[in-house]
């Protein structure tokens, strides 16, 4: 039982520490390339990599990404 508690605690702390380095950012532009360029610039400025999680278009493109270090 003690081993199970220890494994659970380690797993929980791993998830918390990973989540603390993630940051969500958004960008708006007239094209997909323009919105991604804004996301890429923000990631470069923060010294992070990015993963696009959502993109919508209409009159403008709205893009959301997660930055991770």
Question: What secondary-structure arrangement, pairings included, does this model have?
Answer:
Layout: H1 2-19, E1 22-29, H2 32-46, E2 49-57, E3 61-68
Antiparallel strand pairs: 1-3, 2-3
C-alpha-based Rg, rounded:
17 Å
Strand share of the residues? 35-45%
Q: What's the number of helices?
A: 2
How far apart lie the N and C ends? 35 Å
Write structural notes for this entry.
The protein has helices spanning 2-19, 32-46, and strands at residues 22-29, 49-57, 61-68. The N and C termini lie far apart (35 Å). The protein has 69 residues and is an alpha+beta fold. The radius of gyration is 17 Å and the shape is elongated. The longest helix has 18 residues, at 2-19. It has a 3-stranded antiparallel sheet, with helices on one face. The protein has a domain at 22-68. The model has no long low-confidence stretch (mean pLDDT 84). Helix content is 48%, strand content 36%. β2 and β3 form a beta hairpin.
Summarize the structure.
This protein has 69 residues and is of the alpha+beta class.
List its traits.
single chain; 69 residues; alpha+beta; three-stranded antiparallel β-sheet; 3 strands
